[in-house]
Amino acid sequence: MKEILVKDKVEVNINDFDINLVEKKIFETTRDLGERLLRDSIRGIEEYELSNLERSCLCGGRLKNIGRVRRKITTIVGEVQYARTRFKCCTCGKERYPLDEVLGLQENGNVTLGLKEKTLYLATDTAYDKAADNLKKLTGIELSGRQIQNWAKEEGEKVQESVRRKREQIFDDNCIPESEEKRKRVFVQVDGTFVKDRSKPGSVECKVGVIYSEKAKVSKNRFRILDKRTYATVGNIDSFREEFIAECTGWGVWDAEEILYVADGASWIKKMCKYDFPGAVYLLDFWHLAQNITRALGEDHKRAADNWIAEVKTTSNARLLLKRIRSLYVRIRDPDLQERLKKLYGYVKSNEEGIENWKKVKCLGASGAIEKTVDITIARRFKKRGMSWIRPGLSSLLSLRLLKLNGEWDKYWAARGVPV
């Protein structure tokens, strides 16, 4: 068979010569070359380390060479096997592998952090088994979905610990970072959603908060948020409040000239505004108000609903809307409609300030940012068909997903020792 030899032994059949075959051959050769280079590098590192090794244990005893032990690790270039020298202290009996120590390989840690980082990057967006399939397709490295799931839990707990330390610095040590810039107007929005609970019948609630100040117009009716910060947790309301306030503090919310708190009218979200954001201007989300009006009046009074919605959008007059509801209530005799109108009246009455404030700040309350954030943060990864979650695993993966969504993925892994 006639062959073409391309540098470093990339061989292709002249009869089947095309770019796709060459590409495949180069990819395979690159992996083989990477494994060889890694083994050679490991060998050279060990020779250097052993030549400079202090042959004494921490206890003061002498280290004795007791032979070589083989080890296999999985890396971003594939599986690599090598042998390393084992030492034993003649006094305390403790064993050491100097090569493992200098390479940063923990005991029984048979994968590199670089491989973990790339694998978990896939897993933050897709199911564990699918992430394993994608990794194999892209790199040829075989891992199980269960293995990736375990990594996500372990690494997510490390992320959560760093979040706890940051919260303690703010609340316990009063160490508040200075804002890089003073923003004129900041938007704060909070919402929640549920995912299926695997451990018992029912659901686990995920609470989500978002902070932003800048928007850029993309098209006639579309805007893109430029500086969004997202936080989410499966913890209870008290832990979420404290953690989200810490996020707001670190982001510089309190330094803004004006804080607009947009909500859908849910009582727990309004309470957060009252107690945790006392200086904020509360705004009821216009879309939720319109939805409540439409639902209450039904198809038989659709025209009236449209008129009410247009009127309140133009006037920001909650009292006028309440008057319209009362007027219709006394004129109709349908008990079901009356009941719906009573609920609508209570909803508007409890959010009267949030409607009136639209005029005050010249801004309609719009919760599109939090609705989209809940969809991106939770629904697209945790609410796909057939998915259910145990709280610790959900919490860990959510922590990793937030790193990615907030643009902090590379910074976190660089701190862990992975070159980015």
Describe this structure in words.
- With 420 residues, the chain is of the alpha+beta class.
- It has two domains: 3-110, no CATH class; 185-405, no CATH class.
- The protein has helices spanning 19-51, 98-103, 113-123, 128-139, 145-171, 237-251, 267-276, 286-297, 302-315, 318-331, 335-350, 352-361, 368-382, 391-405, 409-416; strands spanning 3-6, 10-13, 63-75, 78-89, 95-96, 185-196, 203-212, 215-219, 222-225, 229-233, 258-263, 281-284.
- The strands form four sheets. The chain has a five-stranded mixed sheet, sandwiched between helices. The protein has a three-stranded antiparallel sheet with strand order 3-4-5, with helices on both faces. It has a two-stranded antiparallel ribbon with strand order 1-2.
- Helix 3 packs across helix 5 and helix 5 packs across helix 6.
- The two termini are 44 Å apart.
- 27% of the residues are buried.
Count of individual domains: 2
Number of strands: 12
Order of helix and strand elements from N to C terminus: EEHEEEHHHHEEEEEHEHEHHHHHHHH
Radius of gyration, taken over Cα atoms and rounded to an integer in Å: 30 Å
| Mean pLDDT across every amino acid position | 87
Strand order of the largest sheet: 10-7-6-11-12
Write the layout of secondary structure elements.
Elements: E1 3-6, E2 10-13, H1 19-51, E3 63-75, E4 78-89, E5 95-96, H2 98-103, H3 113-123, H4 128-139, H5 145-171, E6 185-196, E7 203-212, E8 215-219, E9 222-225, E10 229-233, H6 237-251, E11 258-263, H7 267-276, E12 281-284, H8 286-297, H9 302-315, H10 318-331, H11 335-350, H12 352-361, H13 368-382, H14 391-405, H15 409-416
